[in-house]
């Protein structure tokens, strides 16, 4: 080395180049930072998987089953193979030896039936859209063209569409082993005693319709190999989990497989999956020795991105006359679809501990049966199990209030866990660490103008106004921050729930945070920068966050279940603390002081009681130069940390919705929506608010618009965005949101999960409002989605003859679903 | 194969295209203009929105040959001298994007909306953006962003609105 690297010299050069930024005096925690991610997203300099072009890249297209259930008696791809631009074409049989079976990581019971799930169907198709053959060609148009030259012979089999019928004796079978996948039971307290002689029992059945998650970015995969190792780029939420699972299913050794999640355009659980297309892309790259890309069309995605919800719920609430809840009994049928995918059977279980909601009770009993049908498998969709649970209990509690002639807020008040009672172990065995339901509810009621709206409602009822006002209440909590590995293990989940972070101070004093979370819209680059900036006393701008590539972020459990901040963000903090301890040791050495005498404040280590100090940036450079280090001190300022909390995270809140329902046309419009959420301490209020807004919109989508509909033959009818309606700007009101802050006690940041809260809370708020508007008309319920037609039919079929003067003429009845109307 | 000439973000391209090639695929696969994404196959989502001769168009619903002789501006062509368009600024300031997949189309559609109605009410923004779907934000912040940009643009008109004649000259020069 000719020029000796002098720490002071380098520091001077950096200072001259203007690169040293001062840490801001303001704490980053709680600050509404604009997002770092936005720069590339608002200018189009993004890296969506479909943007990737590699030399020699080929395009894959899949031929998909036009039938829900059929035996495959022949597939002939030869004509496709000879078309111009076509490099290869394969049937399922061609790949049968090497394609393996798609994994299910959550065998919820000992005797669960987990059928073999070939990525490409070989002998039988069991849901519409299942891949039966593929073409690999030089461009996407040619690949699509060549699909038409493939001949497939099917022998139709009976579709299995209705869960109750599927369980009946003699029903056609989806799999040889029968249509029952598992039955899972859970109980606490003496449920018989709770129901015996109960003065009031509310017993209701609700339908959680099948939903299509509809992330705006369709799935896309690029697979490539250099002959030794493989790289898979995928629009996935789970690059780390995917790598492990693909190593297990494809036989590609884990250390030869790199998985990258580039920019990912939303997921909502739909990209928490090991998909057939990911496996097949890897196999095709291996066979052909060339990079391959597959990007789904939206209609392909509606068919074959896993669906969400789809449960038949029966909930019974036993209560005393004063409104006190004695017990809750729940029986579920959960539609698994045709196969068990990554966490399919576990989704209803995530709700199993939540049907008691925020309420105290003596007994609880839960049974869930997973049922196979000839439909696309279901799996995680925003909230996964908890929206269903919250819907059922919040709807039932509103019904209880009505039954008792009590205000729905008052019934809740009489049953909820009071602020003094935390930590509180519920009848379902979870310990809610903290919460303040009183505060969130009071704030929401005030913002909403609850009493004024009730007065207006009374007035409209009095006047027989054809447009009635309904008020819906939803006081939710949820278990999230999927973590405690120990608990996940006790539920038979195949992996843990820890999260990992690495923090490196670079020689110039800048900071790299490497996270095992895999953001796809949640703003981790911004929020993790805020956490690191506070912990290390460095400027927010000096932190960059690396993620989503298994060769960069070596360890991780990825992003779902509102876990990223409460597990991954805390891991970042823990890694920063370790870095600081190393820096303190170095500072003490350089200042010839004892480490105990060195205090840290605002990015500077100072010897107590003196002016002598070193900034963390100076220490980074000193560690890099390594000229003068304590004995045995490795020349670097970095650290890793893995965090595995002891408990879940329990955000809560109160959502209030006012709807106007036109009793003549069935039209329903949300007039106002107020949400007060308590997600503990907040890192970035802007991001939190955004998560709440988006969550509410998705929950409203389920309440009013969305449903995956199959015809009598089992074909999916809602394959396009024209048929499967996600809310547009014109369909939604402005949401009014606020927060209360009750810090979590389960992690040092005091934070709680926020990603799913809005979706969990909002669906029952909206449907409770509709039911509230229509109750005087004798309507007890409207099945979701509460379309104008369903509302109109519910009114038409209601027992009570309506005060309304005239019932308008029958609207045109393009019946969407076979079983519309009131229940 | 038909030969077309099209200007995209100020650069003129001459391309031979299959008559069935969609404009969005010309942009993405041939010209490397991947800032404009595709979200559906039925013209419903608006993710692919660009301006075509100054008016917003869903580039998945236009054939490349139909754009012959036209000027296309994508989200990549909005910044001027390294400064973002006020609509881009407003989306950032109001946190009007999360995953950002809808954002290019949303921004292009919103700019066109302001051409017709420089000071839209909340209601008008919601109606005007009905053809652009976002799954992440719930739209509240998008509406705020569009109205913020409207206020900002009435104060300081963004020089050379996208699709204005200067763009074409710049491309030709
Ligand atoms: S891609 Fe959906 S409208 Fe163009
Ligand atoms: S920001 Fe994700 S779809 Fe709009």
TrEMBL record, chain A:
EC number: 1.2.7.4
UniProt xrefs under SMART domains: Ald_Xan_dh_C
Biased composition range(s): Basic and acidic residues: 24-33
Gene3D superfamilies the record matches: Aldehyde oxidase/xanthine dehydrogenase, a/b hammerhead, Aldehyde oxidase/xanthine dehydrogenase, molybdopterin binding domain
Keywords: Molybdenum, Oxidoreductase
InterPro entries according to UniProt: Ald_Oxase/Xan_DH_a/b, Ald_Oxase/Xan_DH_a/b_sf, Ald_Oxase/xanthine_DH-like, AldOxase/xan_DH_MoCoBD1, AldOxase/xan_DH_MoCoBD2, AldOxase/xan_DH_Mopterin-bd_sf
GO molecular function: anaerobic carbon-monoxide dehydrogenase activity; iron ion binding
The keyword Oxidoreductase is assigned to this record: yes
Keyword Oxidoreductase attached: yes
Pfam families xrefs: Ald_Xan_dh_C (PF01315), MoCoBD_1 (PF02738), MoCoBD_2 (PF20256)
Domain Aldehyde oxidase/xanthine dehydrogenase a/b hammerhead: 43-158
Enzyme class: oxidoreductase
Start and end residues of each stretch annotated as Disordered: 12-33
Protein name according to UniProt: Carbon-monoxide dehydrogenase large subunit
Automatic annotation (TrEMBL), chain B:
Annotated ranges, domain 2Fe-2S ferredoxin-type: 2-78
Alphabetical UniProt keywords: 2Fe-2S, Iron, Iron-sulfur, Metal-binding, Oxidoreductase
SUPFAM superfamilies named in the record: 2Fe-2S ferredoxin-like (SSF54292), CO dehydrogenase ISP C-domain like (SSF47741)
Name under which the protein is recorded: Carbon-monoxide dehydrogenase small subunit
Comp. bias regions, Basic and acidic residues: 155-173
Residue segments, region Disordered: 153-173
Pathway: Alkaloid degradation; nicotine degradation
First-level EC class: oxidoreductase
Gene3D superfamilies according to UniProt: 3.10.20.30, [2Fe-2S]-binding domain (1.10.150.120)
GO molecular function: 2 iron, 2 sulfur cluster binding; anaerobic carbon-monoxide dehydrogenase activity; metal ion binding
Matches recorded under InterPro entries: 2Fe-2S-bd, 2Fe-2S-bd_dom_sf, 2Fe-2S_ferredoxin-like_sf, 2Fe-2S_ferredoxin-type, 2Fe2S_fd_BS, Beta-grasp_dom_sf, Diverse_Oxidoreductases
Domain of life of the native organism: Bacteria
E.C. code: 1.2.7.4
